[in-house]
Amino acid sequence: MPASSPASDKYTQSQPLWARIALALRGRVLAGEWKAGEAIPAESALSEFYGVALGTMRGAIQSLVEDGLLERIHGRGTFVRGGLTGATMLRFFRFGSAEGDVPASRIKSVKAVKAPALAARELLLAADEQAICIERQRCWGGKVQLLETLWVPHGPFKALLDLDKKDFSPLMYPMYAERLGITVNRAVDELSFDRLSAAQARTLDLPVGHPALRVERVAFDLAGRRIEFRVTVGNADHFRYRAEIR
Questions:
Q1: Which PROSITE patterns does this entry report, sorted A to Z (predicted)?
Q2: pTM for the whole thing?
């Protein structure tokens, strides 16, 4: 185990010890010492390494579990939380009868652009900062069902500009992790209803002004940085939402 002590001067000594330990563990995760989906050492081993009581270590780890960075799996241990696949977006739509199937992805364009105002605001980019814009269609049964536009910061995602369209995965988040080393840890979706524009209606083979569901999503990496903003538009007739409230 690397010799990295949480008692470094960079930590505020007024913080509780468990909070300083949590900061140290977070730093090691973000540095890539433990990858998404990998187990961290046992609490007893970490307690011994940092020279703290087991209860203190448990408190530090629990805070990272509550933050969504780690997850406990009963009988197995504590793991760095695995990245999202991206399929969760599809829970808002119903296509055919096969649950869990992923619609095909058709990449229409990938280009560097000046981020539009909405994307710049959601990604916390400067007004004149460049982003990469990806336009794609999601198809089911040979028909376009969803229209998606994605924006990502130019710097960490610039390698996508050199990628052939056919090499893009139907699920973007696993591709980000595999090709760029960027793990999407969580996402926030906002739903609204709209009317299809002429261009959207033509592509979806629906009447102009047909009711549409619009899903705006902001995705975050392990460090909590905003790394993707996407807008998905589809036929509102396919909308579904189910929630269990207790």
A1: HTH_GNTR
A2: 0.79
Question: What residue segments make up the domains of the chain, in order of their start?
Answer: 17-80, 87-238
Contact call for residues 234 and 147 (beta carbons, < 8 A) = yes
Instruction: Render pLDDT for 17-61 as a digit per residue (tens, 0 to 9).
Output: 999 999 999 999 888 899 888 999 999 999 999 999 999 999 999
Q: What is the CATH number of domain 17-80?
A: 1.10.10.10
Q: What is the pLDDT of residues 186-195, one digit of tens each?
A: 899 999 999 9
